[in-house]
Design goal:
This protein is an alpha/beta fold and 674 residues long. It contains 22 helices and 26 strands.
Length: 674
């Protein structure tokens, strides 16, 4: 019943709602302040709510404070504040009168110093902490600092930036639609972060697109659990909620243990997050299942990186509401595609819900439905280019299309499916492996919380598939079990040769996996060096097996308990090992045997278990040994297929074409191992 009621809440009284798209943030906030000044805009734990009327007053005070220190509307102001209502209000109010550059408060002094120089800042807005890294960097770079004085006894998000009382400002002191609203940094998961300018027109349109996809209204309430220095939390979350005239709850950062309490206290109707946060919520909410089902949520939104079907299904079961998987990126002012509330398609990130989407081949030609290619975008929400990086801009844009670097396809219903990043595709011996597909298979295991797939060097194949896995706290599975599980869900060439159980997976602030860092940390070179520290094979039998592997793989050392797949074993290497064991010990192995016994010790035990008690290792039953020689030197009768072909040829001479099989007679003794 709970699920039915929530589905009805989604489908009634929300379709066909007229939505006004505001040209700039100033107009958006001024309109809500005029028509609903007492409606709640910003809320936070243990704080009084800030109304739209109070938020508009705060906007005017901040813009006046900026002008008072010489900051013009086209100047750039970095905002470095910890998560919470002040960070939300500062980002919006600064953007209303200048160009807001929200930065991660976790950066080091060196990072701030580098970014401050590249961004050409007019000022830094931050809290009055004289020892902070950003203030020290600003001092070195000569960037003026605007102190934010918190007012915790007042409404959530209220702060002061000037000693003088604000005065009325003319309209031209506020930023307009063509002005830049934000300069945002990309996630930088595969390269150094780029800076992306986004105009007021583009971010307001994108916020409206999010609202339309989710059918947001003034009665909705967002629980903001994402940092506001990335577009996901800032535009798809905060600004989308404000554009709809609704309210936003801004706690001081995400806390999985407090999440269910926030649901009870603030009664939000939606939240948006990255998969890592969704998983943390699931883990923490196990003891609050009944409360979660009775929550006020009507939907859950996901973006920034791939959401596994397992997490999606668990979220829907926990909250009893639809989970909306979406696709976005900073360069498109976030939202690109979204699943419709009533027509969600599993595995897809939805239909176009912002810019125009095309699938292009390497020559820039549009591909038909179902064909994989690079996802390309165009439309008014797309950035004009990267800040101070003409080369990156020229590389990203081609014939008016912005090329995302993502590989995907559109189906006949125009639902978009993401295969992975083109640069992250693993080229394994002529085969292409998409990390997202392998991650999806691994995440379907009930004990796997997180999975990250990446490439590691391989001498013969060029690259091999590796996976870092985070398990549930009480899980009792290992790499061997997970590899067997993956083999039941994936083609053999996609199964990770290297599986590592790790406590956490490195991710950027936006939640995207840092695959390059994983590849560097867990390269096979390191593993080979580490292997010499383990237990060496002690018995002569194990030393012989180890010698086979060393010879086949071209390595100097291997321990008795070292996983050979972590050392680069592939199908060719397994075949060579099978032949050597057959030749030296008279035991027939299969590829399945090596998969299930991937160490020297395990393989030795497996081979020993093949003894029959009558002496040496027994040879397995092999049908090839029962082939008898036939006296076939003379003419042979035609087969049924050949006879049919002859009849057709007689009736339709010269017309049919056939694939003709050939048999070759090989002279000499048959070698079964060969």
């Amino acid at each position: 019943m709970s699920n039915i009621i929530k589905e009805l809440r989604n489908s009634t009284a929300r379709k066909g709602v007229g939505r006004r798209v505001f040209p700039c943030i100033r107009d958006l906030l001024a309109d809500h302040a005029q028509h609903a000044p007492e409606r709640h805009a910003i809320l936070a734990p243990e704080r009084l709510p800030m109304t739209y009327g109070a938020l508009w007053t705060q906007v005017k005070a901040v813009v006046f404070g900026l002008r008072n220190v010489g900051v013009r509307r086209t100047d750039r102001v970095a905002v470095v504040l910890a998560d919470g209502p002040e960070a939300a209000v500062a980002a919006i109010t600064v953007a209303a009168g200048a160009v807001c550059v929200p930065l991660n408060p976790g950066f080091t002094r060196d990072e701030y110093q580098r970014y401050f120089g590249e961004l050409h800042l007019a000022a830094l807005m931050t809290h009055a902490d004289l020892n902070s890294a950003c203030r020290r960097a600003a001092s070195i770079q000569g960037v003026p600092v605007i102190d934010v004085s918190m007012r915790p006894n007042e409404a959530a998000g209220a702060f002061s930036v000037a000693d003088r009382a604000p005065q009325e400002l003319p309209d031209d002191e506020f930023a307009s639609s063509a002005d830049d609203a934000f300069i945002l940094m990309t996630s930088g998961s595969t390269s150094r972060p780029k800076t992306v300018p986004l105009t007021h027109a583009s971010v307001c349109l994108s916020a409206g697109n999010v609202g339309a996809a989710l059918e947001l209204e003034a009665r909705d309430r967002l629980l903001s659990v994402l940092p506001l220095f990335h577009g996901h939390g800032l535009i798809s979350g905060l600004l989308a909620a404000l554009a709809a005239g609704s309210s936003v709850v801004c706690p001081a950062g995400f806390d999985a243990r407090a999440f269910c309490g926030w649901l009870t206290e603030f009664q939000p109707t939606w939240y948006t997050a990255v998969p890592a946060i969704h998983r943390a919520i699931l883990e923490a909410a196990d003891c609050h299942k009944q409360g979660a089902l009775r929550s006020s949520l009507r939907l859950v939104r996901s973006a920034s990186t791939s959401l596994s079907s397992e997490v999606l299904e668990r979220l829907e079961a926990l909250f009893g509401v639809p989970v909306i998987d979406t696709y976005g990126m900073t360069e498109a002012a976030t939202q690109i595609a979204a699943n419709p509330l009533q027509r969600r398609k599993r595995g897809s990130v939805g239909r176009p819900a912002g810019p125009e989407i095309a699938i292009l081949d390497s020559a820039g030609r549009r591909l038909p439905f179902g064909k994989r290619g690079e996802i390309a975008l165009r439309g008014p929400t797309i950035t004009r280019g990267y800040d101070n990086d003409a080369a990156a801009t020229a590389s990203a844009f081609q014939d008016s299309w912005f090329r995302t670097g993502d590989l995907g396809y559109l189906d006949a219903d125009r639902y978009l499916f993401i295969v992975g990043r083109i640069k992250e595709i693993i080229h394994k011996g002529g085969q292409k492996v998409a990390p997202a597909e392998v991650e999806g298979a691994l995440l379907s295991h009930p004990d796997v919380i997180e999975a990250a797939v990446f490439a590691v060097p391989h001498e013969r194949l060029g690259a091999d598939v590796a996976a870092a896995i985070v398990l549930r706290q009480d899980a009792n599975v290992g790499a061997y079990t997970l590899r067997d599980f993956a083999r039941s869900h994936l083609a053999a060439f996609k199964v990770p040769g290297l599986i590592l159980i790790v406590p956490e997976i490195p991710k950027g602030a936006g939640g995207k996996i840092k695959r390059n860092e994983l590849a560097g940390r867990f390269s096979k070179t390191c593993l080979l060096q580490d292997g010499g520290e383990a237990v060496a094979p002690r018995s002569e039998f194990k030393r012989q097996l180890a010698g086979f592997w060393k010879d086949i793989l071209g390595i100097d050392r291997i321990s008795a308990d070292q996983d050979v797949f972590a050392l680069g074993v592939d199908s060719l290497a397994m075949t060579q090992m099978i032949l050597r064991v057959e030749e030296h010990f008279g035991t027939a192995l299969s590829i399945e045997d090596i998969f299930s016994s991937p160490t020297v010790a395990a393989l030795a035990l497996h081979i020993a278990s093949s003894k029959d008690g009558a002496g040496p290792l027994a040879r397995r039953h092999d049908p090839l040994t029962e082939i008898t020689r036939a006296d076939a030197d003379g003419p042979q009768p035609v087969s049924i297929v050949q006879e049919r072909m002859l009849r057709i040829e007689r009736k339709l001479p010269g017309l049919p074409q056939f694939n003709l099989p050939f048999a070759y007679r090989l002279q000499g003794e048959l070698s079964i191992p060969a």
